[in-house]
């Protein structure tokens, strides 16, 4: 009888099927992912997700008998009290007939629940954002490691052979096992040749010397110059790259003009930044600051949910951010990133102060400051908003400042282009 | 069970084969030898050579998803099933089977890495002996499946589908496979096809007809025919008859019909339909022998494990573990139980086979009345082997279900009329009811009763090419309308023209309902 070990066969044999299945339900899955992004926290983009889809394209109909008309017979087990002629009231709909109830098998309009892996989930998230492939791979890669020397081992690839160590072992062994040197043998051979040539020695002595030579040659043969036990290799260990910590400030205008859609768009923006930062730093803190005419540090829920009324004073948020930095995030220990989302409104008088604050204080301590101006498609304001025209003047002066107007998730990525460019990081 | 185990526990002799849960390949091999010695040596089972394959749980899920077949072609529906199974499995909602066995020669048994040694033993006794013997000996499998060829065929199918995907695009291939899958249950020939010679003849006829069709020219029809001055109506009727004969109508195998006669399909599309049809046919015996197949396997593992215990090859601990999983496998919840999901084929099959064993060796008066042929014949294994070879579920139940088993299961029969809010208990497990309960239970397993009876009745190839199907509704049970309409779309897709489905009274032929579908442009 054969026993075959198939455990090492390539994993995910049904990957092809999986891909075909995902492609088939793509529209529905994407909708489900969007829905779930809405519910997720910014720091929680990663990780698989149970998605629930209802898809026409996943139906597998077959001819089956209906339940509405006709007569049926069932034989059931477990009779306790019934006698022939008894009547049983039918259970309310749903539990209906039991006997030959075929399994629903995804048919009908039942929701279909399954889990997406982390990669699949991110793929769909990225697809919306239209990230270039390089960046996708970079963001998806799990924590990077680097190989470091970690002593020696007796095993390894030839390229890692440590010659010094190996030769040291070899030498020690050769001495211990008395492996004759080449010079010893050469000398003895020369001696024998000389004696043979001159002939002034007894045959017995010559035989003894020949015997000795034979012994030496034999020893050389059985005691190898380099034996497998001599081999030493450099051992490498993969250690996670040392990373530092970063704090990410999310600043958002929450005045009434910011609609739910705009907030949604902003959320994507924050998510992407967070995803990027969490690749590069072991620890990423998030600080949410919302503002109208006053700014306030809040938790994530409040940040996205609550709507305030009132005007907009951007400098209030910048001030609040500086306060938080001074209180909790010393510049020496933390890498500071800031992302600001707004619909571009600000009180005219505030602009100068805000710009000043930005230039003199904030941009000096920030690794990167990204600003997006969100607006819905229908009203693409013909002229630049207050904030935009203000920021526009300083964009050129600061490398760590980026700004962008977006009306859809696909437009967010360019804001980060520099941040993602391979030379950085 | 109690009667059997009572006398055991004496004559311990041989050394233990294993102790504890851990297993390795040598141990599995050694244990297999012991099982083989009992199964083949003592019980005289007749099996294909076995091949055990050790797999991990994900691989089991993989196998599940592709209807239990290794090396299945690619299709999104398998991905869908995998996603569902996996999601249920990860949540712990469903446990995986301990084994999976393929009806092939050599017989491939998948066993899971996670199993304990006792489970591996149980699985080998169950699948490598029980299922294997059943596959090799049951007449349905012999008649319908070719165990030596199935793996090669699957490989061919997989490669062919992949090739088509490359040539014609994944979507185009999927479209055909989707439609073919929808008709899989109608892709079965329930009666053996005619012998080759007749088939050849038909084929020749068809070719000749095709030739005639190709040469046919509309112009000649308008000329008066001197030799056959028939009235037009009669002409049409005769044409219909001729067509019915040449297309072998009525035809219950929809896939076969579409493969051979759908006007618009290309060769590769026909081949895809054929692949699905072959698979449907391959699984047909399994659908009809669930009770017997599982019963046979369960009976074998039960006998073999007990025998191993008698021989001292396994210890009490292993037996306890075995009994625990055995009893959960053969558990039958009552009909009101929330776990009830139909009659458990393991439970019914095992109970009936143990009962046959009992009747052969220790018959009661009742058994002698009911089963004069086998009661007390002293040859339980011989009797069972005959049953395993020559019956399928419905006939097996009709032949062998004894009053005792009906009493043990407390079977009763109810009649349900859709328009009434009540169901009526017709017969129960008593003297008057036994035969009727048995008859009804058997028909519950008869696929010609439980599957809708759908046939191709006309194709109108010379006219508008409208395909007409007919569902002969038994007891007024019509097709599920939603499902039917969706499935009919698939038929139309393959046929390429308008398709009509008539639901008619089974006996009278009165029209009950009509469905119609057009192919998507």
Polypeptide structure, described:
The complex is a heterodimer of chains A (425) and B (521). With 425 residues, chain A is α/β, with parallel strands linked by helices. Chain A folds into three domains: 16-54 and 116-129, no CATH class; 158-235, no CATH class; 245-420, von Willebrand factor, type A domain (Rossmann fold), CATH 3.40.50.410. Chain A contains 13 helices and 13 strands. In chain A, the strands form three sheets. Chain A has a six-stranded mixed beta sheet, sandwiched between helices. A two-stranded antiparallel sheet of chain A has the order 2-5. In chain A, strands 6-7 form a two-stranded antiparallel sheet. With 521 residues, chain B is an alpha/beta fold. Among the domains of chain B are: 14-138 and 289-328, no CATH class; 330-449, no CATH class; 450-517, no CATH class. Chain B has 23 helices and nine strands. Chain B has a four-stranded mixed beta sheet with strand order 6-7-8-9. Chain B has a three-stranded mixed beta sheet with strand order 1-3-2. Chain B has a two-stranded antiparallel sheet with strand order 4-5. In chain B, a hairpin with a 4-residue loop joins strand 4 (412-417) and strand 5. In chain B, helix 2 (25-42) crosses helix 14 (290-310), helix 7 runs antiparallel to helix 13 and helix 16 (345-361) crosses helix 18 (380-390). Chain B starts with a helix and ends with a strand. Strand 4 of chain A pairs antiparallel with strand 5 of chain B.
List keywords for this structure.
heterodimer, A: 425 residues, alpha/beta, Rossmann fold, 3 domains, 6-stranded mixed β-sheet, two-stranded antiparallel ribbon, 13 helices, 13 strands, 40% helix, 20% strand, B: 521 residues, 4-stranded mixed β-sheet, 3-stranded mixed β-sheet, globular, disordered N terminus
């Amino acid at each position: 009888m054969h026993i075959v070990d198939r455990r090492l066969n390539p994993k995910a044999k049904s990957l092809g099927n999986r891909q075909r299945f995902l492609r088939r339900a793509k529209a529905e899955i994407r909708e489900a992912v969007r829905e779930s992004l809405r519910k997720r926290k910014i720091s929680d983009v990663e990780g698989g997700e149970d998605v629930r889809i209802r898809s026409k394209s996943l139906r597998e109909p077959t001819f089956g008998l209906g339940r509405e008309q006709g007569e049926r017979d069932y034989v059931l087990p477990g009779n306790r009290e019934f006698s022939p002629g008894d009547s049983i009231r039918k259970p309310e709909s749903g539990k209906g007939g039991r006997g030959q109830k075929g399994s629903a098998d995804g048919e009908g309009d039942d929701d279909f629940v399954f889990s997406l892996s982390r990669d699949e989930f991110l793929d769909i998230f990225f697809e919306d954002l239209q990230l270039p492939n390089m960046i996708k791979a970079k963001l998806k890669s799990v924590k990077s490691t680097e190989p470091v020397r970690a002593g020696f081992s007796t095993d390894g690839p030839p390229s890692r052979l440590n010659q010094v160590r190996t030769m040291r072992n070899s030498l020690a062994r050769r001495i211990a096992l008395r492996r004759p040197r080449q010079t010893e043998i050469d000398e003895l051979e020369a001696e024998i040749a000389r004696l043979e040539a001159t002939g002034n020695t007894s045959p017995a002595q010559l035989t003894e010397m020949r015997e000795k030579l034979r012994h030496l040659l034999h020893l050389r043969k059985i005691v190898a110059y380099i034996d497998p036990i001599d081999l030493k290799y450099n051992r490498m260990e993969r250690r996670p790259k040392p990373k530092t910590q970063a704090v990410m400030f999310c600043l958002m205008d929450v005045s009434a003009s910011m609609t739910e859609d705009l907030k949604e768009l902003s959320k994507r923006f924050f998510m992407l930044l967070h995803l990027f930062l969490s690749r590069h730093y072991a620890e990423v803190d998030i600080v949410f600051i919302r503002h109208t005419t006053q700014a306030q540090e809040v938790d994530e829920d409040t940040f996205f949910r609550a709507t305030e009324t009132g005007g907009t004073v951007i400098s209030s948020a910048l001030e609040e951010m500086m306060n938080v930095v001074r209180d909790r995030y010393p510049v020496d220990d933390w890498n500071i990133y800031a992302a600001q989302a707004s619909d571009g409104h600000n009180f005219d008088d505030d602009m100068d102060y805000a710009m000043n604050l930005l230039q003199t204080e904030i941009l000096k301590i920030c690794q990167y400051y990204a600003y997006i101006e969100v607006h819905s498609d229908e009203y693409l304001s013909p002229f630049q908003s207050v904030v935009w025209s203000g920021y526009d003047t300083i964009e050129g002066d600061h490398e760590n400042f980026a700004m962008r107007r977006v009306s859809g998730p696909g437009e967010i990525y360019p804001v980060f282009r520099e941040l993602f460019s391979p030379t950085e990081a | 069970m109690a009667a059997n185990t009572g006398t055991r526990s004496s004559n311990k002799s041989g050394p233990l084969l294993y102790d504890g849960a851990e297993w390795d390949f040598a141990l599995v091999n050694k244990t297999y030898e012991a099982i083989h010695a009992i199964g083949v040596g003592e019980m005289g089972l007749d099996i294909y050579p076995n091949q055990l394959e050790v797999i991990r749980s994900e691989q089991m899920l993989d196998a599940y998803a592709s209807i239990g077949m290794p090396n299945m072609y690619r299709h999104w529906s398998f991905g869908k099933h995998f996603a569902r199974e996996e999601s249920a499995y990860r949540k712990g909602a469903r446990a995986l089977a301990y084994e999976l066995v393929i009806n092939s020669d050599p017989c491939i048994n998948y066993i899971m890495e996670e199993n304990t040694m006792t489970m591996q033993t149980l699985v080998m006794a169950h699948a490598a002996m029980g299922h294997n013997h059943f596959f090799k000996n049951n007449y349905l499998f012999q008649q319908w499946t070719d165990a030596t060829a199935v793996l090669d065929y699957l490989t061919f199918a997989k490669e062919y589908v992949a090739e088509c995907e490359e040539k014609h695009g994944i979507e185009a291939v999927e479209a055909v496979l989707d439609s073919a899958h929808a008709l899989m249950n109608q892709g079965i020939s329930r009666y053996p096809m005619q012998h080759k010679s007749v088939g050849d003849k038909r084929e020749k006829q068809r070719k000749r007809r095709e030739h005639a069709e190709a040469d046919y020219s509309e112009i000649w029809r308008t000329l008066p025919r001197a030799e056959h001055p028939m009235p037009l109506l009669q002409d049409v009727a005769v044409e219909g008859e001729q067509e019915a004969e040449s297309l072998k109508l009525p035809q219950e195998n929809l896939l076969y019909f579409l493969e051979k006669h759908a006007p618009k399909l290309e060769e590769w599309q026909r081949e895809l339909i054929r692949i699905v049809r072959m698979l449907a046919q391959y699984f047909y015996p399994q659908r009809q022998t669930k009770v017997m197949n599982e019963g046979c396997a369960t009976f074998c593992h039960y006998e073999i494990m007990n025998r191993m215990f008698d021989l001292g090859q396994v210890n009490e601990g292993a037996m306890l573990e075995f009994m625990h999983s055995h009893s959960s496998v053969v558990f039958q919840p009552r009909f009101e139980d929330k776990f009830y999901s139909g009659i458990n084929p393991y439970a019914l099959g095992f109970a009936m086979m143990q009962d046959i064993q009992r009747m052969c060796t220790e018959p009661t008066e009742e058994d002698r009345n009911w089963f004069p042929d086998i009661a007390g014949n002293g040859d339980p294994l011989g009797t069972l082997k005959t049953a395993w070879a020559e019956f399928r579920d419905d006939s097996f139940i009709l032949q062998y279900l004894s009053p005792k088993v009906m009493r043990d299961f407390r079977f009763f029969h109810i009649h349900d009329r859709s328009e009434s809010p009540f169901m009526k208990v017709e017969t129960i497990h008593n003297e008057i009811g036994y035969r009727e309960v048995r008859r009804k239970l058997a028909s519950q397993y008869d696929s010609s009763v439980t599957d809708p009876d759908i046939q191709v009745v006309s194709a109108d190839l010379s006219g508008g090419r409208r395909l007409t199907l007919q569902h002969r509704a038994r007891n007024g049970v019509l097709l599920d309308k939603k499902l039917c309409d969706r499935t009919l779309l698939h038929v139309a897709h393959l046929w390429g023209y308008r398709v009509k489905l008539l639901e008619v009274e089974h006996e009278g032929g009165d029209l009950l309902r009509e469905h119609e579908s057009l192919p998507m442009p």
